[in-house]
């Protein structure tokens, strides 16, 4: 690189000399051509070097050698970086120079130079005519022609006129008086005799002459305007600035004429010089690009090769440090340190991964065995984690391959989860630990969740998530409620049942003692009163028995049986009793359930009885009873339906129908549906009610214990 650097510096010096040669027209013809030959030879050498480097780069690029692409990119960038500004400067400079040279030799400029010369001459002529007028006025101002008077007045007139010398001549040419700014100059400077004769003939004289010290002075010689035989000679100084400008104007005009003659040669010289500078800049940039690329790419290529080896699993790669202590050396040293640290971190990462997997499996095992649901949300309220209990409680089916679902997505997929999602969304916004009870209504079932939540810090310190833990306490609430109502029923049955027997016995004794002795009117009154007492006591006994049944928790005598057979046996009793409104459609033959037939028989009786009481006094009464097989969450159920065309349930009581002592009838304890619900839940089933367009519908579902193909597809219908 040293010879190349010397060549570039030499070419730069030659270009500087060419610039000076172009600026000096006298040396242009002598020095320009030799300098041009030297520059062309140097550029040819640089072009050969660039071509050799380009050929080598193309060969390495085709072989896909390490660093070849980066070298090509650096060379192209250097070329563009150098060519764009230099080219822009070349384009505008060449245009400015060519247009500037043309503007130098414009016709108007040449004419202006000539006009400047004429103007200079006219200015001098005007100044001389003015001095002639001043001289005439000075001569006219002399009144006394005596020598003494003239000598006294001339010096004053000279000072006022700013003249160097004033001299008055008589008719015979004798000097009448003279005044000079130099007191030692006693003899006036004489004009030529021909000038005197010409002035006396009637033509005043004015002209430029050389004075003392080769300074230009203006000499005037005028005759008297009043006709007196006198002449006045004045010697006036000229402005040094005017003299200097006159000389410079003459030199500039001569220079302009010379350059106008060399106009085309100047344009060619400037254009060629700028073109050579452009070529020199581009060649120098390319040479610098190749040199810089080699220095930059050599360590980078080594790093690339070592990186490939590291990617293949060889973490022991070390690269030799460059000779120069610069950023590349730091990069190579950092790479060597990195490779050593990677080798060290490999083992640490393996141990950490094993520890993380162990911890992850530990947490997954714990979360998977929890009966409480656990879900975690990120800052964008997207569901990130949910344990199996949470999926089961919320009846969610999440695809792990899809993106995390948001609270809004859960609402759209499962609208019945809206109360839970709204509660979670509200407390997430508050960013505080919280506790709330949420009730969900899904189909005919109600589900109560006890939820607890807290902000959850995420790995990114700038974000915070939220964790929600919830338990399904529906069964607990139902059990507590049933236990409370059972205790109430037990106490009521105990308190009411004790006085019923004495009341009945007392009424019968009154009837027995007084009925035979009383008159007819009183006998009828006693008969009616005691009968009412006995009748109400029996009603109270029935109510007490209902209380006892609700309070008792008899042990189920569970056994598998075909539900349709049990239902048909009960319904046949009503059909044989002549109930005309009964319509039967049993569609689950051979579908077995496991339970207590006596308790389930009581359920069917209660439901048919409630339907009959709802239809009392109604024309065209109709009770529809049917069974069918249904699938809910991949679990088969036997569904038993009882529907009537009565008035239906009151809307405000729909949520409380299965609570004890809630009834829509004027007579009754309100325990019928509560007992039904209790029996169904003891069998692991579900019960729901709804109002139809006409009447009410009660639906019971019991899990199938065993179902055959015939039970699934068969259907038996009975019309009454």
UniProtKB/TrEMBL annotation:
InterPro entries documented for this protein: HAMP_dom, HATPase_C_sf, HATPase_dom, His_kinase_dom, HisK_dim/P_dom, HisK_dim/P_sf, NtrY, PAS
Annotated ranges, domain Histidine kinase: 491-706
Subcellular location: Membrane
Catalytic activity: ATP + protein L-histidine = ADP + protein N-phospho-L-histidine
Name of the protein described by the UniProt record: histidine kinase
UniProt-listed SMART domains: HAMP, HATPase_c, HisKA
Signal peptide: none
Annotated HAMP domain residues: 294-347
A Pfam family matched in the record: HAMP
TM helices/strands, residue ranges: 31-58, 70-92
CDD domains linked: HAMP, HisKA
Alphabetical UniProt keywords: ATP-binding, Kinase, Membrane, Nucleotide-binding, Phosphoprotein, Transferase, Transmembrane, Transmembrane helix, Two-component regulatory system
GO MF annotation, one: kinase activity
The enzyme's E.C. designation: 2.7.13.3
Species this protein is from: Allochromatium tepidum
């Amino acid at each position: 690189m040293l010879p190349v650097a010397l060549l570039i510096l030499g070419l730069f010096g030659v270009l500087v000399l060419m610039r000076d040669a172009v600026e000096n027209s006298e040396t242009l013809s002598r020095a320009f051509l030799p300098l041009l030959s030297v520059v062309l030879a140097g550029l040819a050498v640089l072009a050969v070097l660039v071509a050799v480097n380009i050929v080598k780069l193309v060969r390495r690029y085709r072989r896909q050698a390490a660093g070849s692409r980066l070298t090509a990119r650096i060379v192209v960038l250097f070329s563009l970086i150098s060519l764009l500004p230099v080219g822009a400067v070349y384009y505008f400079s060449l245009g400015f120079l060519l247009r500037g040279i043309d503007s130098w030799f414009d016709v108007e400029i040449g004419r202006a130079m000539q006009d400047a010369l004429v103007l200079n001459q006219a200015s001098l002529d005007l100044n001389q005519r003015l001095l002639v007028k001043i001289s005439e006025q000075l001569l006219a101002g002399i009144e006394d022609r005596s020598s003494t008077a003239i000598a006294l007045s001339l010096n004053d007139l000279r000072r006022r006129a700013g003249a160097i010398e004033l001299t008055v001549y008589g008719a015979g040419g004798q000097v009448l008086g003279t005044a000079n700014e130099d007191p030692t100059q006693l003899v006036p400077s004489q004009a030529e005799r021909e000038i005197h004769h010409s002035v006396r003939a009637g033509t005043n004289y004015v002209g430029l002459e050389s004075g003392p010290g080769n300074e230009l002075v203006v000499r005037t010689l005028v005759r008297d305007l009043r006709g007196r035989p006198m002449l006045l000679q004045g010697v006036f100084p000229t402005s040094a600035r005017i003299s200097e400008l006159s000389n410079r104007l003459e030199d500039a005009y001569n220079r302009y004429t010379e350059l106008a003659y060399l106009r085309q040669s100047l344009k060619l010289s400037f254009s060629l010089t700028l073109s050579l500078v452009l070529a020199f800049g581009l060649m120098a940039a390319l040479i610098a690009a190749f040199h810089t690329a080699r220095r930059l790419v050599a360590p980078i290529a080594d790093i690339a090769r070592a990186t490939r080896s590291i990617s293949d699993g060889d973490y022991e790669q070390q690269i030799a440090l460059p000779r120069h202590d610069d950023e590349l050396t730091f990069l190579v040293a950092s790479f060597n340190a990195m490779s050593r640290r990677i080798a060290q971190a490999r083992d640490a990462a393996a141990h950490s991964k094993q520890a993380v997997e162990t911890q992850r499996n530990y947490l997954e095992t714990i979360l998977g065995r929890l009966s409480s649901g656990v879900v975690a949300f990120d800052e964008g309220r997207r569901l990130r984690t949910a344990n199996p209990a949470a999926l089961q409680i919320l009846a969610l089916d999440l695809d792990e391959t899809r993106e995390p679902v948001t609270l809004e997505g859960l609402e759209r997929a499962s609208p019945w989860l809206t109360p839970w999602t709204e509660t979670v969304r509200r407390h997430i916004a508050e960013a505080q630990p919280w506790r709330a009870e949420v009730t969900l209504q899904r189909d005919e079932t109600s589900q109560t969740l006890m939820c607890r939540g807290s902000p959850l810090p995420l790995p990114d310190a700038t974000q915070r998530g939220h964790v929600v833990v919830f338990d399904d306490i529906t069964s607990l609430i139902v059990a507590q409620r049933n236990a409370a109502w059972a205790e109430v029923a037990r106490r009521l049955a105990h308190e009411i049942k004790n006085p019923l027997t004495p009341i009945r016995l007392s009424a019968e004794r009154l009837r027995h003692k007084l009925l035979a002795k009383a008159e007819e009117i009183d006998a009828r009154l006693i008969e009616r009163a005691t009968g009412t007492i006995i009748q109400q006591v029996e009603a109270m006994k029935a109510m007490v028995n209902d209380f006892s049944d609700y309070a008792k928790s008899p042990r189920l005598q569970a056994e598998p049986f075909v539900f349709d057979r049990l239902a048909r046996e009960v319904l046949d009793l009503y059909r044989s009793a002549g109930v005309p409104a009964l319509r039967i459609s049993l569609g689950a033959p051979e579908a077995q359930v496991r339970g207590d037939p006596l308790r389930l028989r009581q359920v069917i009786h209660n439901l048919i009885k409630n339907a009959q009481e709802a239809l009392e006094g109604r024309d065209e009464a109709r009770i529809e009873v049917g069974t069918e097989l249904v699938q809910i969450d991949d679990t088969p159920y036997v569904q038993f339906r009882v529907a009537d065309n009565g008035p239906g349930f009151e809307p405000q009581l729909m949520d409380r129908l299965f609570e004890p002592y809630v009834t829509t009838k004027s007579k009754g304890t309100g325990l019928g549906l509560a007992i039904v619900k209790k029996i169904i839940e003891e069998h692991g089933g579900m019960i729901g009610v709804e109002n139809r367009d006409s009447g009410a519908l009660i639906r019971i579902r019991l899990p199938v214990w065993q179902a055959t193909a015939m039970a699934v597809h068969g259907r038996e219908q009975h019309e009454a």
